[in-house]
Design goal:
By secondary structure, this protein is mainly α. It has a domain of 59 residues. Helix content is 40%, strand content 6%. The chain contains 5 helices and 2 strands. A two-stranded antiparallel ribbon has the order 1-2. Strand 1 and strand 2 form a beta hairpin.
Length: 137
Amino acid sequence: MPTHRTLQLSEAQRAELRRVRDHDTRPYLRERAAALLKIADGAKAAVVARRLLLRRHKPDTIYAWQDRYEREGLSGLLIRKGRGRKPAFSPGVPGAAARPRGPLARSATRPAPVRGATQSLAAGRRTSSVPVAPADE
């Protein structure tokens, strides 16, 4: 029967994780420190992932945080450069704005739709872009 992974912390490491959990300005780092402290106190990572944090996570995410902390210390919990969505426009890259992208860029090249008839609120009469024959009296 496999046993669950544990995390052995020295008093200095535990104090450092408590300080980060309680006082760091980065919410993601506070959450990761809290997860590691709960694992060090004996909770299973899968239980921590599903029930003991503010948001649910996959257990593999918690295991990855634990692996990085064991390998690199507190710096392993930081978000690394190059993660996330890349910007569509970079001011320093020549030719980056050569072709507009996205839904707003496409709609800017299309003409506005023509309406058949509109109601003029100020005059109280109908106006139309199509000529209308006068009504017979």
